[in-house]
Amino acid sequence: MRRSQPVEEPPKVPARLRAVPEILQTYDPGHPRWRMSAEADLTILVTEGSPEPLVETVGLEPDKKWAKGDVFGPTRRGRRPYTGISYASRLDGKCSPTEHVSDLVERLRPFVTGIAALSARPTTHGITLWVVEHTRAYDRQIDLDPADLTVIGAMGARLSLDLYVYPDDEE
What we know:
Layout: H1 22-25, E1 35-46, H2 52-58, E2 64-66, E3 71-72, E4 78-79, E5 83-88, H3 97-108, H4 112-119, E6 124-135, H5 146-155, E7 158-165
Parallel strand pairs: 6-7
Antiparallel strand pairs: 1-5, 1-6, 2-5, 3-4
Helix pairs in contact: 4-5
C-alpha cells in the first residue's frame, strides 16, 4: 500500500497583511513579473560623413546605421540630425537592465579601442550607452557591475538610464 505524501500547508499570512491584496504581499520590483521590457544599446553619433567610416573604425558591423538627413519615424517626415550607428543587447526584453548591459559590454569589449578612438574625434557628437526599462514598479534600482562601468568609461561613452513606469498597465 502506497503512502500519500503530506500536503504542505501554505504559509500563514500575518494578521496585519490579511487585508492587503496578495499581489502586494509578493511584490518584488526586480522580478520579471513587474518588468514589461528592458534593453541596452550603444549609439555613436557624428556631425558629418557617412556611417561606413564609423563601422570601419569600430571594427564591428552595427545593428543599425544611418546618415545625416535620412528620413525616419512612423510618418517618414523626420530627418536624422546626425550620422550614426548603434549596437544593441541581444537578450530577451524580459531580462534585467543589468543583464542587458553586461551582454552588450561583453559583445563590444573587443572593440573598445575603436569606439574610444571615435570619442576623441572632433566630429563626434556623442557616444551613449542607453539603458531603458519599462516597468510597473515605482521603486526600481539598476545595479551595474564595476567591470562593466570600467569598459563603458574606456569607450568614452556616457551612460544614460531611462525608466518608464506604467503603474496601471496590465499585460
